[in-house]
Amino acid sequence: MKRRFFLFIAFLALLPILYVGGRFALFLTRPVAPHIERTVVVPAGTSFGRVAEQLHGAGIVASPAQFKLLARLRGDAPKIQAGEYLFVEPATPGQVLDRLVAGDIILLRLTVPEGFSLFEIAGKLQRLEFGDMSSFLSLTTDKEFIRSLGIEAPSLEGYLFPETYTFGSRTTSRQLLTSMVGQFKNHTPPALLQQAEKQGLDLHQLVTLASIIQKEAGNNREMPLISAVFHNRLNMGMPLQADPTVIYGIKDFDGNLTRKHLLDPTPYNTYRIPGLPHGPITNPGSEALQAAANPASVNYLYFVARGDGGHQFSATLREHNAAVRRYQLRR
User: Each residue of 279-320: pLDDT tens digit?
Assistant: First the structure.
């Protein structure tokens, strides 16, 4: 009799444990889906308890207390990563915790083509709904920020390397610009800078010339030839007469380059000013940077678009005029 009584008491004592264990097991195995698509932002330094409450409030986990217990048992509470998380599909608490630990945050993808200017990059970021574009553009001319990146220039134009960048939606303009300049530095190794120095170019001059080559070239194969034209002109004291530099200096350019524009003495009008313009006119790629430091060994001084994506190169004005008549005036 006594034995039965003690067994009954033990069973009663185990009931709460079995009940709690059963509820926890059900919590672990039952997927939960928010009623609508939910975004949860986890700021850096947020306590796990606060994160659990956020997830519960958004309808992503059924119990914040049990979610905290799960994280404690797995040792994952200190491992979660800050960022912005999107929840759409049903998920068990373990799957939700896995995403927080892996940092499976909302990512933005920005592809910067070769030859894009600061304003074109800002336009793409705006379409991605990335932050405040005025803040982004302001940083590109912030002297202190530019100096902190190791760049000696009045603007970051030319120093934002064309590349595909993947980053979190909470990334700041400062972080993104730092990453883009970091890529630029990766593509301007000491050997390239030494070769540029042999051509009489410092880093800023190299990037400026490369940006003009980038805008003028119809293809990568032509870049060393176009570079040679500009190097030859610089060595002879001839104006570069590059239309893209003139266009860059025109506010609200409407697509129609006129004689009046060619006479306007802006810091970028290479018809009016000697040598290189004030600074880069776009962000050049690796091929343009290499071409600026390694011009082809030719005596060309002129080139004109053929209309097929390439250019006709000439060493004399007479040859050039003939090429203009053939490829431009005829059209």
Answer: 999 999 999 999 999 999 999 999 999 888 899 999 999 999
Residue among 60, 66, 62, 68 nearest 89 (CA): 60
DSSP 314: E
Do 300 and 313 contact (CB within 8 A), yes or no? Answer: yes
Please name which of 73, 65, 77 lies closest in space to residue 20, comparing C-alpha atoms. 65
Task: Give the separation between CA 58 and CA 35, rounded to whole angstroms.
Answer: 9
Mean pLDDT, the chain, whole residue set: 89
Q: How do the domains of the chain map onto residue ranges? A: 27-102, 107-186, 195-300
**179-234: pLDDT as tens digits:** 999 999 999 999 999 999 999 999 999 999 999 999 999 899 999 999 999 999 99
C-alpha–C-alpha distance, residues 205 and 292, integer Å: 9
Angstrom distance (rounded) from CA 104 to CA 170: 13
* CATH for the 27-102 domain, from 2.60.40.10, 1.20.1250.20, 3.30.1490.480, 3.40.50.300: 3.30.1490.480
Across the range 32-45, mean pLDDT stands at 87
Residue 63, judged by CB atoms within 10 A of its CB (0-12, 13-18, 19+), counts as middle
The dihedral formed by the CA atoms of 308, 314, 317 and 322, expressed in degrees to the nearest 10 = -50
Distances (CA, A) of 64 to 50, 132, 143: 9, 34, 47
For residue 290, the one-letter residue type is Q
